[in-house]
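Notebook entry, structure prediction.
Reason for the run: the old model in the group folder had no record of what sequence produced it. Starting over properly, with the input documented here first.
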Amino acid sequence: MEITDQLGRNLTIPDEPQRIVSLVPSQTELLADMGLGKEIVGVTKFCVHPEGFKKSKTIIGGTKNFHFDKIRSLNPDLIIGNKEENYQEGIEALAKDFPVWVSDIYNLEDALDMMKSLGEMTSKQVEAERIINLVEYGFRRDFFYKGTVVYLIWKDPIMVAGRDTFVNCMLEKAGYTNLVDASRYPEMTVEEITALNPETVLLSSEPFPFKEKHLEDFKRRFPYANVKLVDGEMFSWYGSRLIKAPEYFERL
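New structure, fully documented this time:
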């Protein structure tokens, strides 16, 4: 089968891949929910969904630190990656020996296109379409306006979600106005964030694991904002977890 990934790269894969390595947690969950649990042979150490899934799979390292020897030992006939979450050198090295399909996702439409493509290349079109329909149905609702926001993804240094990110798209879908105009994930100081005067500051559970112990500290740093801990998976995972995101956004 001749296919094209979201970077415009052409590759050839078997009609029904039987040995899949997933390099991205949200796409691992998606593949499993599409009924490809048996076909997935390798995952990253961050692939925490489905629960317990990693115990029966080979851990091939992290999303930005592949163990090439382990991947080669699995002899995959399809590797699924992502431009942002993986690293270019690693993807290029794997692509010399294996078909590597790479997603590139900035918004909901990109995510749905990725789901459709994965369904087609794994002969799981019906399952992929079911997930797509559920996601589209969930996001048809109108979320009430929640005001201005700055979304923190890292602590030292403080890093935030800016434009040209999937997180920014989800913030807008959820009813927020992101005050960060810079692209991608810029570093910002407390003073710079304070100057933006956000109504809400969100502390994401990933990639930095903000927890209750950080909440009081940031409430002191931003005394005029509503500081909240949020589930980062709901804002940054672009697979089947999107089915659960709309209800979560409504509760915030």
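Summary: The longest strand covers residues 147-154.
The old model has been moved to the deprecated folder.
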